[in-house]
Amino acid sequence: MSDMEKKTAEAITPAPQRNSTSSSDGVKAGTNEEAFEVFKRDGTGVDFRTVGWIQASVIFLKLIFATGVLTIPSAMYVLGAFPGAINVLGWQALNTYCAIIQGNFRNSHAGCHSIADMAEHVGGAWCREVVGILFLVTFAIVGASGIFGASVALNALSSHAICTNYFMLVATIMVFILASVRKFEKISWLTWGGFISVYVAVFIVVVGVTQRDRPAAAPQTGDYEFGYHVIGHPSFVAAITSVASIFCSGAGTSAFLPVISEMKRPRDYNKAVYLCMGIVTASYLTFSLVVYAYCGKWVASPSLGSAGGTIKKVAYGVGIFGLLVSACLYVHVAAKYLFVRILRHSDHLQKNTFVHWATWFGCNFAMCVVCFLLASGIPIFNYLLALAGSLTFAPLALGFPGYLWIYDHQHYRKGGVLKATAYWLNWLMILLAVFLTIGGTYGVIQQVIDAYANGEIDKAFSCADNSNSS
């Protein structure tokens, strides 16, 4: 058989699937486990599959935790403490559910490295391209939020010594260097330090706000409006933007998928997800409620600036490494998708060749450039995250996982009451994603237009500081 005939035969051969009759290790009897993995362990190239489940959980924590916790307190001011808390619990529960769906689908269908591969499996080549572009746009936006957060930290530490855009450029260069670390196993050591960095920084602010008689940004003499509400009364535009921000704070679950392909035991994925999302949900809820309770309407965005100038510098000094590592991870997962997509059927994928390294560095550089341009064009932290939550994360991390579940559970529609209920609830989740996409995107765009009109944002690529805008 000629090489062309072999490739054609491989292309039309159905991918092996794991199912409920699998053996104890999750692999169907007689199925070649290597067929499920993008990175092979054949001893001839670089071994990418070196990540343990605890390491994976810390990577997931760092992907989710840093930027989300910095914006939820100001979202609570808009919604009120009670609706804000319900949103945190509800969205994190849904995000956890969607993360498990994606991991189970990946571990049941061969060759899925990213959510775009899953899209090809359920919808063909055109679906892969649409979802792949959506994935890249998503992590370009959240990568921009990480770069913007790091630039705010540099501004705070230097007392605005130079133009904000120069700090964004400095942050982008640092992110490029960190993101260019090739394997998740190596990045996982950065994520330990990054997670501890941001967690301690947020804890410092939480303690700091409780030690003040008045919020740092409030008038320090005379009467003032505190702005704490158990239930807020926002406009639709303000409410949907805040809801999208809270949803976005835990919606980066599609970034978990490339990590599975580098895990020693992909079947340990669910344990890593539950540990990660349990810590994230508890931290988001407690930290955000305390900061909002003590700052009210005077909460800063990002929230590390909520306890006054001195605490702000201390918090950003401690947390800047974590902000950089977050942006590094966002860029890395997007670049890894491009890298695998370009070299997947090439010998260069797992060999230390010039083409391998040039492609890897090129993918990272391209993503960093796009992130820098976005951070400079929409320089308000909340709006960046809300835009990601509505325009891209809603279909990618909420709607599409619902369809993946439906694809694998078509028989539930005609099952018993519980199975039929689960089936239609997943369709309801898809409708919720459509609503959040349309309504949230409209709300964010309107708020960005209003911010430019009233001078809250000076202009794109300006040197104005928008770090305290909420």
From TrEMBL:
UniProt GO cellular component terms: membrane
A Pfam family annotated for this UniProt entry: Aa_trans
Domain of life: Eukaryota
Transport is among the record's keywords: no
InterPro entries per UniProt: AA_transpt_TM
Signal peptide start and end residues: none
Keywords assigned: Membrane, Transmembrane, Transmembrane helix
Compositional bias annotation for Polar residues: 16-25
Bilayer topology term: Multi-pass membrane protein
Positions of transmembrane segments: 130-151, 157-177, 189-209, 236-260, 272-294, 314-333, 354-375, 381-406, 427-445
GO molecular function: L-amino acid transmembrane transporter activity
Region (Disordered): 1-28
Location in or out of the cell: Membrane
Domain Amino acid transporter transmembrane: 50-446
Keyword Transmembrane attached: yes
Protein name: Amino acid transporter transmembrane domain-containing protein
Native species: Coniochaeta pulveracea
